[in-house]
Amino acid sequence: MEDSQIVDLYWRREEAAISATARKYGTFCHRISRNILSAEEDAEECVNDTYIHAWNSIPPQRPNRLGAYLGRVVRNLSINLWHKNHAQKRYSGIEALLSEIEECIPSRQTVEHKVEEIELTGFLNAWLASLPRDDRILFLRRYWYGEALNTLEQELGVSHGKLAKRMYRLRAELREALEKEGYSL
């Protein structure tokens, strides 16, 4: 079923929208959540919460790309659950991802935080658009969807060292571009 047909089901408030969403995007959403949480039960909870969120937000929203919309929702729900579950604990899964990318993201502790956040989002989107397609996809799969390096290594058929070097180069390019634009890191 096409995304527009699924969104139309939501707009008509037909429960078939949820089952159609689960059939088309269930595995995709589950993979994103599991990459962040590393726990099947928690991932399943976030995926189900994603369906509820979609039901409650469509309408009034009408996403053009349902997969991207659901991916953002499940990612945010998963990160929120991770923070809730690990408020007092250290956890290597998401900690490793965040530690890799944190040196490229400016501090948010300024009065103009919201304006800077909007500007930074625009800058990051433009930077990603400037990358070759393969690098853009790789960067998003690692840092947005939280896919493990060993999974990416297997799919790309490259060694750990080669992929680590490529990821380092992308982070260095991002850091350089941010500094060039005046973002303090």
UniProtKB/TrEMBL annotation:
Residues 23-85 form the RNA polymerase sigma-70 region domain. InterPro entries: RNA_pol_sigma-70-like (IPR039425), RNA_pol_sigma-70_dom (IPR014284), RNA_pol_sigma70_r2 (IPR007627). It comes from the Bacteria. Keywords: DNA-binding, Sigma factor, Transcription, Transcription regulation. NCBIfam families: sigma70-ECF (TIGR02937). PANTHER family: RNA POLYMERASE ECF-TYPE SIGMA FACTO, RNA POLYMERASE SIGMA FACTOR HI_1459-RELATED. This is Sigma-70 family RNA polymerase sigma factor. It comes from Dysosmobacter acutus. The lineage of its organism: Bacteria, Bacillati, Bacillota, Clostridia, Eubacteriales.
